[in-house]
Amino acid sequence: MNLLRRKSVTELQTEALTDHSLKRALGALNLTMLGIGAIIGTGIFVLTGTVAALNAGPAVVLSFVIAGVASIFAALCYSEFASLVPMAGSAYTYGYATLGELVAWIIGWDLVLEYALGAVTVAIGWSGYVVSFLKDIGITVPPALSAARGTVVTLADGSTITAVFNLPAVIIIAIITTLLVIGIKESANVNNVIVFVKVAVVLLFIGGAAHAINPANWHPFIPPPEGPGLYGWSGVMTGAAIVFFAYIGFDAVSTAAQEAKNPQKDMPIGIIGSLLICTVLYILVSGIATGVVPYKELNVPDPIAVAADRAGMGWMSSLIKLGAIAGLSSVILVMLLGQSRVFWSMSRDGLLPQFVNKIHPRFQTPYMTSIITGIGVAFVSALLTVREAGSLVSIGTLLAFVIVSVGVLVLRIREPTLPRAFKTPWVWFVAPMGAFSALYLMASLPWRTWERLIIWFAAGIVIYFGYGVRHSKLASKG
Asked: Left (φ > 0), alpha (ψ -120 to 50) or beta: where does 295 sit?
């Protein structure tokens, strides 16, 4: 039993040229907009507040800088792989080509944490903003149907009620799953419109709230430590590990490689361009939010809306909430797109059952994996809180970055003469730094998150040896 059997890079390149089962409809602008659509979301509109309040204080700005630098290392490695192996599957496919089938399965299973739980986290944040926006216009969503199961919600009269499930989160997942089944081009067009609105709203917040900054709210910039991960430098690093979730958009872009018109040229543009644009916006927004509102008051589902209200932006605050709703919608769209493409790639390789490996005859989309992903994400998003899901997404993303960074080095050693449309600059510095920085951020996450990761991987190993290892198409070829 060869658990490290690999797919040939040359065969993957040939397959990318000849396989037309997915529709190639995305250009460089579409890919960049997909990246921005995925990156700008929970990091700004949700996690900024919780990380500032519970971990880093005003130094949440540093958390975003650290996570952004670590992301740049990984983004350069992803860009080389995406141009070299322009196939759906992202880190799963890259791992299969460099480190072998068992590692590929591990990273594919890990990507469920990244994309599916990423969609869960954002759907929960989306729900918080929708409830807040509807309340502004006189519509009240029953508290029992707008939070994670078991959450105790305090009502206006001081009484409490226990939530049953998060209905708005389920609704948005159902809508976006339907859109993804209909078509990739249609999904990209909707995403483009949403991203335009989202970036405009972010710029509106930056311009409209900057005047209300009270410098006293930034002191102390790094609050004194109160325990592991609670303020101080350890809080900044824990915060960086959590907000790292906000940077996974460029990773999701790579899952659309098989639907790009010219992946060798356009994938690096989409990955790196979207990351740089969003990093600057993250730093500005987190700095302004903590300058306007004392950081301990930001542990709410809609911190940017709270900051807008405090800045006296009036009707603009409702517009920001609407923009946040639209923006979070695009993040869910890209996360669900990424997860469905990873599952589709794994089923094509025989590691998952073949019944999910179906392309819609009219829409040319992997509709079965889209529907299955949507159902699973909707179920989990109805039950979890945003912080529980967010930490698991971060550790899943970081592990993917470690494997991609190592994989680039392995392929440089094993096949140095392969023609590469994009080459990671200073690869012997960038790739190790990408791996080490991701490992360091993983170590900053709470042990409880590691326990859940270990349990998740144990379940994945059982599935692989119970099904995947015997049904692998590489095994049958052998």
From this structure: alpha
Structure tokens at 132: 């807040």
Domain 9-16+31-477 class? mainly alpha
User: How many H-runs (helices) and E-runs (strands) does the chain carry?
Assistant: 21, 2
> Measured on CA atoms in the order 269, 271, 274, 279, is the torsion positive or negative?
negative
Per-residue pLDDT of the chain (478 residues; tens, 9 = 90+): 578 888 888 888 888 888 778 888 899 999 999 999 888 876 677 788 889 999 999 999 999 999 888 889 999 999 999 888 888 888 899 999 888 999 999 999 988 888 888 888 888 878 888 888 888 788 888 888 887 676 777 676 777 787 778 888 899 999 999 999 998 889 999 999 999 988 998 898 899 899 999 999 999 999 999 988 889 999 999 898 888 767 777 788 888 888 899 988 999 999 999 999 999 999 999 999 999 999 999 988 778 888 988 888 867 777 777 777 888 899 899 999 999 999 999 998 999 998 888 888 888 888 999 999 999 998 888 776 666 666 677 788 888 889 999 999 999 999 888 888 899 999 999 999 999 988 988 887 788 888 888 999 999 999 999 999 889 988 777 5
Six-digit token string for 307: 């900051």
| Amino acid residing at 319 | L
274 vs 78: CA distance, rounded Å:
13
Q: Which DSSP helix (H) or strand (E) runs through 370?
A: helix 367-381
User: What DSSP string runs through 94-144?
Assistant: HHHHHT-HHHHHHHHHHHIIIIIHHHHHHHHHHHHHHHHHHHHTT----GG
One-letter amino acid at 263 equals: P
CB 245 within 8 A of CB 42: yes
Half-sphere exposure of 13 (CA within 13 A, CB side): 11
Burial readout 369-389 (b: 16 or more C-beta within 10 A, e: otherwise): bbbbbbebbbebbbbbbbbbb
Q: So where are the chain's domains?
A: 9-16+31-477
| 264, 266, 270, 273: CA torsion to nearest 10 | 100
